[in-house]
Here is the input.
Amino acid sequence: MKKVKNITFAAISAAMLFTGCIKEAEPYSVATEEQVTLETLIQGIPASLVQAGSTGYAQQGAAWDFALPAIHLATESMTGDLVVNGNVGYDWFSQWGTNDALGADYAIGALPWDNYYSWIMAANNVIQHIGDTDVNSLTAKERSFLGFAYTYRAMFYLDLVRLYEFKENKYTEAPNVLGLGVPIVLPETTEVQAKNNPRAKVEDIYNQVIFPDLSKAEELLASYTPDNKYAISTAAVYALQARAWLERATVTNNNEEYTKAADCARKAITASGCTPLTQAEWEDPANGFNNANSNNSWIWGLALPSESATNLMCFTAHMSTENAWSAYGNDACRGINRNLFNSIHNKDFRKHSWLAPERNNPEEESYSYKSCRPDGSVYLNKLPDYSNIKFRPAQGNFNDPKVGGAADHPLIRVEEMYFIEAEAKAHINLSDGARLLNEFMNNYRMTDGGVYDCTNMATTIESFTNEMLLQKRIEFWGEGIIMFDLKRLNVSTKRGYVGTNAPGSYRLNADGRAPYWNFVITRGETQNNPIIGTQNNPDPSQSIKPWNG
Here is the structure.
């Protein structure tokens, strides 16, 4: 095996804090280079994905600095589906939500860029540690760890490409960077090369890194059976392949690639053995969207041990309206765009994730919402209309951030595969896509005798895609998935309208693809890798002015 050369302190310390894929944490210690093992390296990756202060800006008070869950919250803030119902002064994600200060000179750019490349380096370290060896000569543990590393790296590059590829829109122009993704950094990339490393073509990143990495991972993990939902499985590999093929098919409009997306999605469903969330699981006041082991839906999730949970820098602190320790959650009160809420079928139990206006009107029939608080109905009735109760404090503990904040975070739910399969199949045969969406909704989401039928909304591929995406937006609200779909499909967004519940500065209406979905590379990267300075995306800040009626 080759000696590791690029071991990061963050990866090592995080690995020593976490025991990898389990929920408990070990006492803090710092490993020397001699003490670093393959197991330490691989365990450091999932640890770093939920690490508070992952970019270092937490020391300056930046409460958005908590790694991948924070990135998901940032992209959700850019969709317009997520609305701040309360005091915007507590919204640490307002720059993403208002399209303000998103250029290269602002600290928030470090959240995606610095994190993803640190994680890529950690995956590269594992690959380098094992070395370019005949797969058959590896031990079972080495095979699985190498498979994990390739899966992680593919996921990181897939996210980066989808964030940073400049896609055309009506507000900003950058013809010189069309078709470019991000720089490729591999174990063999030298420091000199890294300082003159241009953005690679998008198709090259898919063909040279993403798809080959996932193919290798599929082979390496073929005989591996994970012990829990925090470990990577072949089902997770198939799911990432489905995401990637759908992304490519949208660009090429190639039926072969849509077929691959659909096939990979179905393989993920089958291999996982997972089933969509039931109503009881979805609405569980103690375990709702915070516990990978409380349901059979999650294909892959991240664990945040209580020893690593903080009162401010974790997903629950910002997204749970029931927690009692963070003003970011219950005073900022993140909720759903009123128009999106009104589009949900009244017999669709997912509607119960947000507080309906009629709940306080004794003359109207209202759902009896479940809460982890003992004064549940009284407390919830005081929250603003449309506030979310989707993301519950872990174990239903709304008082103690070390317990309630230590929530698992979903990376892939099996439901996403049903949506990918339906969308991809519709491009091959429209009626097949409509049938699959109808089956999913009626089998898994409708209640009290409700019937869903998208047939009249599936007369064209465009109308079906709009309806499919509507249901997907409802399904994955707050989970960091939807912005990628909106950007991929060139979808318009509307936050400014008569009766909107979005605050004034958030009322952005984008005609087609929003310019701020093309992320800007940080100044730190352009200084270290000057060629990037000539290939950056334009600053989208304030390119769309808030609607004022």
